[in-house]
Amino acid sequence: MKAPLRPAIPSTTLRIVIVAPDLAPDASDPDAGTEAERSRALRIGLLEHGYNIVAVLPADVFLPDRLAQIAPDMIIVDAESQARDTLEHVVMATREERRPIVLFTNDDDTTHVGAAIAAGVTAYVVAGLAPERVKPVLDVAMARFQHEEGLRRELADARTELSDRKLIDRAKALLIRHHGLSEEEAYARLRRTAMEKRLKLADVAQRLIDVSDLLG
To answer: What SMART domains is this protein classified in (predicted)?
Structure first.
């Protein structure tokens, strides 16, 4: 059975978590001050477009647990420096429950863009903090994420279907060999048993194979 499609969420009702540096950095660190200002501009842009920012979190060891509790619809990473470390935390946190991840940065060193995308980042946006760019970037990121999730589901369904077919073929071969049935009769017996036991055809096939293996 194919997995149900997740319904599309209107962009402005997305529950967004921002992973960003502290807005009150050490005053003696000019770089930290610049990062905080950029982060503030991003949040203003999101709020101006009506997005629902449910939390702003630091990229620390507690991030996976916090994201699991909040279960946001999208994660935005605002990282100037230490972007790679921040992304590692976020990707680890979404490994089991995938979510769209958008990275905003002013760092034009794109040497690790490919690795970031491969690790699960949906959009990698350089110098994209202008408020008017925020909504189209997030709309495209969500559309891309949903498209990729659809492809993943199709691939998973295809793998499951292939695996089930192999099980059923093995079970039919056992019935043909041990009971002298034709292929059609073997399939009909499996199907009838599945209906009577209210099981999937592949589950009946697996049980038959397990019993055969047990008895040698």
So the answer is: ANTAR
